[in-house]
Design brief:
The protein is an alpha+beta fold. Helices cover 48% and strands 16% of the residues. The strands form two sheets. A three-stranded antiparallel sheet has the order 1-5-4. The chain has a two-stranded antiparallel ribbon with strand order 2-3.
Length: 197
């Protein structure tokens, strides 16, 4: 209401009407209606309790026959990772980790081609001990082992170990190109591997 047509009596009448409608609504709610509301609320509570008592059904995990782990832009040489991948291929995860730990302790060398000095060991001419690369591969193999457990791969062997050259970033000042490699390791059930052959 504007100042011109302000009427205090009219305002008072509006408030009185509001109070009357509110009191009428209270009178309409009789004790019978209140009892019905209480009963309905009890029923809803009982249904909630019954729903809680029902055992939760867990979804059955679909068993897969393979597990994969991907290493993206690892700061290791691609040439070294090719040799390590060839070294761990067609082995179980436990055997591969054990062999790589032996290499880290300089008890065994990873066979490599090229102008590399000869090393002691059965079935090896030239080889090296790439400690840094082995650290990354051991981490990846442990992750692969966890993935295999989740996917339900019990008796698996490393079917694929593929290194690929990643994009090489420049070092500080642009004088150096850093080494980067993508690595994909895949484990497959031994029975399925034999069937394919």
């Amino acid at each position: 209401m504007t100042e011109k047509n302000y009427n205090p009596e009219q305002k008072q009448m509006k408030t009185m009407n509001k109070q009357e409608t509110a009191s009428n609504q209270k009178i309409e709610t009789s004790p019978i209606k209140e009892e019905k509301k209480i009963e309905e609320s009890k029923k809803t509570e009982e249904t909630k309790v019954e729903e809680k008592k029902k055992p939760i059904q867990k979804k059955e995990k679909i068993k897969k026959d393979e597990a994969v782990v991907n290493g993206v832009s690892l700061p290791i040489s691609t040439k070294t990772s090719v040799a390590v991948c060839k070294f761990i291929r067609r082995k179980t995860i436990e055997k591969a980790i054990a062999d790589l730990e032996e290499v880290a302790q300089f008890k065994r060398a990873i066979p490599m081609t090229g102008e590399i000095p000869h090393r002691k060991g059965k079935g090896i001419m030239s080889g090296r001990y790439p400690i840094k690369a082995i650290g990354y591969f051991i981490k990846m193999l442990k992750n692969l082992q966890a993935n295999a457990i989740v996917n339900g791969v019990e008796d698996g062997i490393i079917a694929e170990a593929i290194p690929n050259r990643a994009s090489l970033p420049y070092g500080r000042g642009g004088a150096i190109r850093r080494k980067r490699t993508h690595v994909k390791i895949k484990i497959v059930e031994r029975k399925i591997k034999e069937k394919k052959k």
